[in-house]
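Bumping with the actual sequence this time:
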Amino acid sequence: MLCNYPHHNVLFLTCYGNLLCRPHYNVNLKAIDVGGVMLQLPKNIFDIGESKGTIIDSGTTLAYLPEVVYKAILSEVFAQYVDMSFHDVQDFLCFKYSGSVDDGFPVVTFHFEGDLSLNIQPHDYLFQNGNDLYCMGFQSGGLQTKDGKDMVLLGDIAFSNKLVLYDLENQVIGWDNYNCSSSIKIKDGKTGSVYTVDAHDISSGWRFQWQKSLFSLLVMTLTYLMF
């Protein structure tokens, strides 16, 4: 479903399962490519089911993948660095690199149903951990929980500088690229009132009571005016 907003086209994904009863946004992932190379993965690896499927969770920092998916991504991301040495730093795969990661590593793209794609830039999935030391933000699902080892769990690193839109009434979720240093305007679909939320308020955890009310409007009404 394509929804038009000023200067934005947001394509929405259907969420599977009743969002009012289940705590996660489970969507239908179809494929992954790394730098344009489509990963060759088991046919049913992304099937939705008990302890399987793809979950979007803004409360999770990293991205967790089934072991076979994790290894396939690593193989393509580091394909041109066959002599690179890796270090295990608190369960993170880390390496020395002195250049720009955006110039030296590929974009990882997740392809969902309905031709919706999610591009994750190198500076988002590789985080700096000291001088010229970078670590991989993608993790094997087995490191999280035993029950989650076969799931794809996409956390904050996948949605950096994106505005994520939730529509509980229609059971869909979507996102669009957005400069998160900018403010947004939110319109209450019932009252017509328009609120401005500044960037520092978006990232502050909605500390004030009125911000909590705006968050409820954000989730429940999904009516936006954006600059």
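The tokens above came from a reply further down the thread. The chain has five helices and 20 strands.
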